[in-house]
Amino acid sequence: MLTNPLTKNIGPQNTAIDLAGYRAAAGYSGWRKALASDPGDLVKTVQNAGLRGRGGAGFNTGLKWSFVPRGEGSPAVKYLVCNADEMEPGTFKDRLLMERDPHLLIEGMAIAAYAIEARTAYIFIRGEYHTATARLEKAIAEAREEGLLGENILGSGYSLEIHLHRSAGNYICGEETALLNALEGKRAIPRAKPPFPQVSGLWGKPTVVNNVETFCNIPHLIDLGVDWYKSLGRGEDAGTKLFGVSGKVKNPGTWELPMGTPIREIIEVHAGGMRDGLKLKGFLPGGGSTDFLGPEHLDLPMDYDVIGTSGSRMGTGTIIVLDDKTCPVGLVLNLTQFFARESCGWCTPCRDGLPWAVKILQRIENGEGRPEDIGLLREQVRYMGPGNTFCALAPGAAEPIQSALKLFEQDFVEHIEKGCCPYL
Ligand SMILES: Cc1cc2nc3c(=O)[nH]c(=O)nc-3n(C[C@H](O)[C@H](O)[C@H](O)COP(=O)(O)O)c2cc1C
Ligand code: SF4
After folding, report:
1. What would the mean pLDDT of 265-270 be, rounded to a whole number?
2. What is the rounded CA–CA span in Å between residue 213 and residue 55?
3. 308-322 burial string, b = 16+ CB within 10 Å, else e?
4. How far does residue 65's CA lie from ligand 2's centre (Å)?
5. Cα 287 from Cα 299, distance rounded (Å)
6. Taking residues 265-280, what's their average pLDDT?
7. What percentage of the chain reaches a pLDDT higher than 90?
8. Which of 86, 183, 242, 268 could link 94 by a cystine bridge, Cβ 3.0 to 4.6 Å?
9. Residue 72 has pLDDT above 90, yes or no
10. Are 220 and 30 in contact (CB under 8 A)?
11. CA 179–ligand 1 middle distance (angstroms)
12. Are 83 and 55 a contacting pair, CB within 8 Å?
């Protein structure tokens, strides 16, 4: 049984599999199957499989597609967009898929576009991803040449073009409505919702935005079916996922593993455990904008709802490890500086609150903190919380700060009492 559908074509060499190699490995058989199916049935299959979006929020992918208006009276023009912005701190999973198996993404997008009846699709790719851009450009050209994209695909009467759009570069461009504004050539600020993009998205037309890894799940799901897909997960969630680990572990990297793989196994087996002489103090389970968890959470399975009810979020599933010799205040300061710089400036708690949080954290880290700074920081974090801003950048930026204040409060206190960073 196939157990590694996302990475089965990825070998040790840093090269992309070409169309001939991809086809020899049963590539595009999901696409052929999809073209012979009813689009509505494809949407239902993806929904029943329980595939949850890999961009961070974990929303059911088929359910998202089902919100696109269909049938008589629905808009003739619809769009599909692949979110390949990947600027979340500590996250490097989509790059691997795009650089090494670009046809898997193209096949997944083609099936998704057909399912929602879109004839134009875009890949919005991070500007620094030069290798991925070049390899995707080549793969799109190869697929067009072979009639797998373009006009009247494989004689089906269905036509689809996929265009690559390089981001001008800003973390906020990854937020799906800011991304749509950027694609339209406007300032990349999020849009007020509702309406949601599935109803009114790119140029006001129904649009589905999904993450790279989400699309890469589709070809095998359609080819091998719902039962196979569900059987891949070890816990509550279906399928496999690219999990990653960065920080001071022996073997940082990214691996395809079943959903529900315990965190301990990811860190201790796949990442090789902590470097000699270091202990794990905490970790961010899914990129920079998630809450810290502690060593007591190591046996949790990486499933969306389990991590969500344990005080954090699965986010991108790429773990950032904090060891006992790295200053948690310095780590949180570094992340907050990034988020403050990337704010689009639309909402006050984000535009003004994040630079203020940076000032306080910098003061504490420099040994110039005041006892009231901890309370001030907690107040700022409350203002940035969910419901106070147009998008999730500020609430996400608040997560490492609020959880560090909970888990590592003593470190903040020590900085203030000693008048210096105790880790120096
Ligand atoms: C500030 C910010 C940055 C984001 N960056 C990305 C990103 O780089 N890639 C991504 O897929 N989703 C990103 N998201 C999530 C997207 O808004 C959206 O939820 C996702 O693309 C949906 O895809 P999925 O349903 O396949 O997960 C970001 C969200 C926020 C608030
Ligand atoms: S939370 Fe920040 S990034 Fe998001 S809309 Fe408001 S100001 Fe812009």
Report:
1. 98
2. 8
3. eeebbbbbbbbbbbb
4. 26
5. 19
6. 98
7. 98
8. 86
9. no
10. yes
11. 9
12. yes
The closest ligand to the CA of 383 turns out to be: 2
Q: Which DSSP helix (H) or strand (E) runs through 253?
A: strand 253-258
31 by DSSP, 3-state: which? Answer: helix
3-state DSSP assignment of residue 311: coil
**Alpha carbon distance 384, 352 (integer Å):** 10
Residues 200 and 3 sit within 8 Å (Cβ to Cβ): no
What is the atom index within ligand 1 of the atom nearest the CA of 214? 26
pLDDT, tens only, 196-249: 999 999 999 999 999 999 999 999 999 999 999 999 999 999 999 999 999 999
Torsion, Cα 404 409 414 419, to 10 degrees, reads 60
Check residue 206 and give its pLDDT.
98
Tell me the C-alpha distance between 250 and 421, whole Å: 26
Say if residue 71's pLDDT is above 90: no
Helix axes 393-407, 353-365, angle to 10 degrees: 30
Ligand 2, atom 8, residue with closest C-alpha: 344
> Residue 391: nearest ligand to its CA?
2
* pTM > 0.85: yes
Mutate to test the pocket of ligand 1, among 6, 67, 81, 83 (most ligand atoms within 8 A of CB): 83
Ligand 2 pocket, Cβ-based, cut-off 6 angstroms: 172, 189-190, 343-347, 350-351, 389-391, 393-394
Q: What is the mean pLDDT of the chain?
A: 97
What single letter denotes the amino acid at residue 244?
Answer: G
Range 322-339 average pLDDT: 98
Helix (H), strand (E) counts: the chain: 18, 8
Give bridge partners of residue 285 from the DSSP assignment.
287
Sign of CA dihedral 225, 228, 230, 233: negative
Region of 326 please: left (phi>0), alpha (psi -120 to 50) or beta.
beta
Choose the residue to mutate in 342, 350, 380 for probing ligand 2, maximizing ligand atoms within 8 Å of C-beta. 350
Q: With a 6 A CB cut-off, is 197 part of the ligand 1 pocket?
A: no
pLDDT in tens, 334-346: 999 999 999 999 9
Residues facing residue 318 across a β-bridge: 244
pLDDT score at 83: 98
